[in-house]
Specification:
The chain is built from three helices and six strands, in the order ααβαβββββ. The chain has about 150 residues and is an alpha+beta fold. It has one domain. The longest helix is centred in the N-terminal third of the chain and has 50 residues. The chain is rod-shaped, with a radius of gyration of 24 Å.
Length: about 150
C-alpha cells in the first residue's frame, strides 16, 4: 500500500508542471487568436469604408453630432459586413468590442471649406485571462474621388 501511495504522489508531482505548461500554452493560443481576429477586423473595416461611396459620409454626418475635437463615433451601420463578423466573434469571446471615431479634415478654400478628406480611427479591445485590457487600433484616411 505504501508503494502505491508513493507512486501516486510521484506521478502527481510530475503531472502538475505538465498541466501548468499546457494551460499556459492554451492561454497564449487564445491571445494569439484574439490578436489575429482584431487585425482582420480592422483591415475589414478599412476595406469596407474605403469601398463605400464618399457621399455616404455626408449622410452619416447629418445624423451624428461631433464632439469638441470634431470627431463623430464610428457606428455599426458604416461597416455592416464587418459588423456581422464582429457579432459572430462575440459569441465566442464576449469581451470583444469594436469602436472608433472619424472626422472630416476641414481645409479652408476660397468660398467655403473643403471636406474631401476624412480621418478614421478604428479600435478593437478585449481583456486577457489576467484581466488586462488589450487593444489594436488602425488609423487611415478616406479621400473623395475627384
Amino acid at each position: 500500500m505504501l508503494e502505491i501511495t508513493l507512486a501516486v504522489l510521484i506521478l502527481a508531482l510530475g503531472l502538475i508542471p505538465i498541466y501548468r505548461h499546457l494551460s499556459r500554452q492554451s492561454s497564449v493560443a487564445v491571445e494569439t487568436e484574439k490578436i489575429q481576429m482584431a487585425d482582420h477586423l480592422l483591415e475589414s473595416i478599412k476595406e469596407e469604408l474605403t469601398g463605400m461611396p464618399y457621399g455616404n459620409l455626408y449622410e452619416f454626418a447629418k445624423n451624428v453630432p461631433k464632439d469638441d475635437l470634431g470627431y463623430r463615433p464610428l457606428e455599426d451601420g458604416m461597416y455592416p459586413l464587418t459588423n456581422v463578423k464582429v457579432l459572430e466573434i462575440q459569441k465566442k469571446f464576449k469581451d470583444y468590442t469594436v469602436s472608433g471615431r472619424w472626422k472630416f479634415l476641414e481645409r479652408p478654400i476660397p468660398g467655403g471649406v473643403d471636406t474631401s478628406m476624412t480621418q478614421v480611427e478604428a479600435k478593437v479591445a478585449w481583456t486577457t485571462e489576467t484581466s488586462d485590457k488589450k487593444e489594436r487600433t488602425r488609423t487611415f484616411m478616406l479621400i473623395a474621388p475627384r
